[in-house]
Write a structure and sequence with these properties.
Blueprint lengths: L1 H16 L9 H8 L3 H7 L3 H15 L7 H14 L1 H11 L1 H25 L7 H24 L7 H13 L2 H11 L3
Helix pairs in contact: 1-2, 4-7, 5-7, 6-7, 7-8, 8-9
Amino acid sequence: MSLSTKHALADSFKKLLSKRSFDKITVKDIVEDCGVNRQTFYYHFHDIYDLIEWIFQDAEDNLNQDSIDWTTGLRTLIQFLHDNRVLILNAYNSISHEVVANYIKEGLHPYCAAIVRHQADAMDTPVLQEDIDFITDILTITASGFVTQWIGNQMKLEDKTLQSMNKLRTVMNGSIELMLKNLSENRP
């Protein structure tokens, strides 16, 4: 029941966002739309910001992270962001760029880690975990930077940033193995 109530509150919030901006929505509006009382809202969330963070966390938990293809993860994340455009843009413009940027990094990190680990396992020489973590961070920060830039450009599907993300995929394919090799060969 608890998780379904959280989802119901989140759905009401998203529905209200389609009609008005974040700063015009109150907890009272959400609970009235959802058909629950204020106490129920506060049982689950401290405030609306907490609700938004939960929405991001729930979405991140539900992303398919079984694939070792980080570009699949990027496409999945882009699709979620586009499907929830109103929420994302409101969060980005009203709350904090950092909250949205952190969600994106956390959403992409498992995909990036999986592909770097896969490349490291395929190498002839052992690779240090710190090198894997370092390259995972590079890949995650780079990809999330493009996504955050796209959000800052109001998430236009014809945006050059989306084209750049495709180029990033092309550049990174093959580069991960090279980065791992370079780090392994240049150990002090």
